Amino acid sequence: MRTTPSPMTLLAMATSIALLAGCSSTPDAGSAGSGNHLTLVTFGSAFQKAQERAFVQPFEQETGIGVTVESPTDLAKLKVMVQSGKPTWDVYVAGQQDVPAYCGTYFDKLDLGTIKRDDFAPGTVHECGVPVDTYSYVLAYNTEKFRDNPPTSIKDFFDTAKFPGTRALSNDPAEGNLELALLADGVPAKDLYPLDYDRAFRVLDRIKDGAVFWSSGAEQVAAMEQKRADLILVWSGRGYEAVKNGAPYAPVWQDNSYHWASLAIVKGSPNREAAQKFIESAVSQKAQTRWAEAIAYGPANLSATPKLDPAQTDWDSSVPEHRALSWQMDNEWWGEHQDEVIQRWTDWTAG
């Protein structure tokens, strides 16, 4: 039976809640626009924890500016906030295609005067976003199955006769699935755009039967640890995580798709100056060094000097030899056509 608390009980409950709030470990949010606080929105999980250690805590100590970290990122929520004219988010961890797509509408232009573009891979710094981490969407193979005849390029991922077995890949085409199919079919990286959809899907048809599509980092790791994919297109950081846990896989860096996430300032941010300071701090050499040592993702600032173990180096997308074998997506093209690509991909996977 449900009973109604007495007034005294309600008063006691309210007092307890107030006391608990006073003991909260959440940083003092301060007042909106006060300049002594900002809100960072990121991906969550281990990624968020590493950012807190590498970026947030040192920034708070050095500047006295408090940082509240929220997750996950949500473009739909961001759009509503900006359109309302009262956003409560300040710094947003944005996908590389989102920065050019929403520059000036949902993200503000940055002051890039203190950013050394030469410290970052060509084409990664944008007027509305600076890269904060890197990873590659890279082919990996089960070393137990392909011990004597390992694959050497993305072409082998689509060759089911020479390399039979289960394939796994992202269910998000924005990782570069169509581009990789075209590269495997002989299209040079410089000629990928505009994407030839029909040609790309003809190549993807070769592996469609029996292909497994993952939708999260955790699913990638599980597929590798449980050896459910003989060949897998995987985020390099998650590949390292699986190998560290004992999964028998090795990366193939030829034709890897070089990716990054960027820090952007939400349009109309009430703490724009603090947000700018945070971004400058997070992409600095020291912060990027801490980042790469805290998690298996590469530093976006290539002047960083992390101390990595051999396995981390094997899976690090920022290593010069690995970047030399990579290609980059045309983010401007994607910013204009991403809805179209996603629709074509959805139709193909459902057909």
From TrEMBL:
UniProt xrefs under CDD domains: PBP2_polyamine_RpCGA009
Compartment list: Periplasm
Family matches, as Pfam families: SBP_bac_8 (PF13416)
Predominant place of localization: periplasm
Signal peptide (residue range): 1-21
Keywords: Periplasm, Signal, Transport
Calcium listed as a keyword: no
PANTHER family: THIAMINE-BINDING PERIPLASMIC PROTEIN, THIAMINE-BINDING PERIPLASMIC PROTEIN-RELATED
UniProt-recorded name of the protein: Spermidine/putrescine transport system substrate-binding protein
Species name: Mycolicibacterium frederiksbergense
Species lineage: Bacteria, Bacillati, Actinomycetota, Actinomycetes, Mycobacteriales
